[in-house]
Structures are given as structure tokens and as C-alpha cells.
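Annex B. Sample input.
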Amino acid sequence: MRPLRVAYSDFMPASRLETWPPLGLLSEARLIEFTDFEVADLLLFSDFGERHWGFKGLKVYVTGENMLPDFDQCDLAFTPLEIPGDPRAVRLPYYAQVLPSLGSLIRPAERRDDQRAPRSKFCCFVASNPRGPERNAFFKKLDRRAHVDSAGRHFNNTGRRLRDKQSFLLDYRMNLAFENSRSPGYITEKLVEPLLAGCIPIYWGAPDVAKDFNARCMINVSDFPDHDAAIDHILAVDADESARQAMLDEPAFPDNKAPACLAPAFVADPIMRLIDSGQAPGKRNYLRRRLREHTFASPLHQSITSLRCRLEGLAWKLGLRF
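Annex B, continued. Sample output.
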């Protein structure tokens, strides 16, 4: 049997799918050869281009963005959003795509020394994308109540460019871990990173986050009636060392069991079923898409929101605080 020829396109430039664990598992069942776009049997594609429009064979859409699949453009889709009843749609949240290993967040009997070490700094924030109205508003309100070190390109107040986020987090008791938008199932690295570093996430995002993560290991801003009430609770927890330690001692996952989506077979098996099914590629109808398009009332609403957020970031760089 000749190798299955696989290509990928329209991912971020640094993406290297050759080392993606699910494809490694797939290669144990079927010899895989990464090849050029023009001669591939199967194409994996994402959101950052339209080169995939020219591919005629079977197509698998893989995204960590807050996006719904368009089955006029693909035959199988892995997205953070759950679509019950459609076997072509597989929920694969972004945190599951980037977590270093299956057991990275499984709680051992004792936390590591660097996770337990006393921390002198209150809270940090790291963001480069200004297009997050909820997190912009919350950061500024919390920062007015208690200083928050912001070390990303957006709202930077540290005067330096961050090189290693995980090392940076080790100095802080809490981390502002807001998604850039909100949809059921959309959970990214924003929540995982502080948990790995042993600091408390102040989370806003997926309304069903407790399906994947232990609600007691974070402060979920959505649990409070407004930002002020959430900030009151945050400051109270920060002032109470026993409350902080109790939260840090909680496992990241319910019952300390990793979600099924973290296993490489969770991705490899649907791809293998597609290959073995013998189905022909679906009929294609291509339309240009915008990231997070379904979270806005209209394209105009999305454009206005994006402009407003970018102007907020520019005002901050100019020293205007409002």
C-alpha cells in the first residue's frame, strides 16, 4: 500500500504539523508522507489564507480560533465549538492542541517547588491582540483598584518586551486570563498557562468552562453580577493566603482526570475513519471568512468593535488613561 500523501496550508507560519502528536499516532496505522499541496490525498488547513480553495481532494479543517466549521469548504472539522449531531464536527479546543503533554495538568500529590514558592507580585496580564472589549475593560478597572503588570504589546506598562511568558508568570499570585471572545467550548492557552505556572487564573470566556476544568481552580468573572463584584472577590482572595493556597491545591480538571480531547487518538481516529470511508470530496462553495465572525451581529459591528479596541490600545501608548 502506498503512503497516504498529506499536505497542510493556511496555518500560522510557525506551524509544523509533521510533529503534531495525532498525526504521529495516525502514522502508526497508516504510512504517511508529507508532500506538496498539488499531489496530496488529504489536506489539513486553517484560517490564515485561502490557498486551500485550490485543493480538490479530501479536506480537514483544523482551527483553535472561535470559528464554526463551513462544510462547503471541508469534509471534517476540528474546532473549539461543539456541534451536536454532526459527525463531521469534532470539538478540539485550542488548549488541547498546545498543551505540552497529556499529563501536564494532572495534579501530583505535591506541587513543584517553583509552583509553591511565595510570590511577591499580585497580578499580571499578557496580551498582544487589542481586539477583546471585555478584557480591555476589566484590565483597566482592576488596574485602577490594584496595579496589574501588563507585559504584552497591548496595554504594556512594564516598559519591556516579554520573552518567556511561563517564566514571567512564576512571579505572580494571579493572572488575568481572558479569552478574546466568548462562545461555548472556546477555551485556549489563556487558562492553561497560569495553571501550569501555579498562579490563579482570573478567567473570562467559555460559559461552559466547568465541563473541562475544575471551577474551584480559578476565579471565573462570569460567576459575578458585574466587574466590581468580581474585583472585590479577587482582592479578598489575594489578601487571604489560606484561600489562595486552597485554590492552588485544587486539580485543574474535575476529579483530576484529563478530558478525552487531550488524547492523540481523539484526533487520529476521525481522520482515519474519513480516509477509510472511501467517500468522495464534498461539493465546494467558497466564501471569504473573518475570525470570530459568528460572535458579532454583522460585519459592520465587527469592524467598529475592532476599530474601537485598536484605538484604545493606541490611546494607552500615547499615555491616555480612561
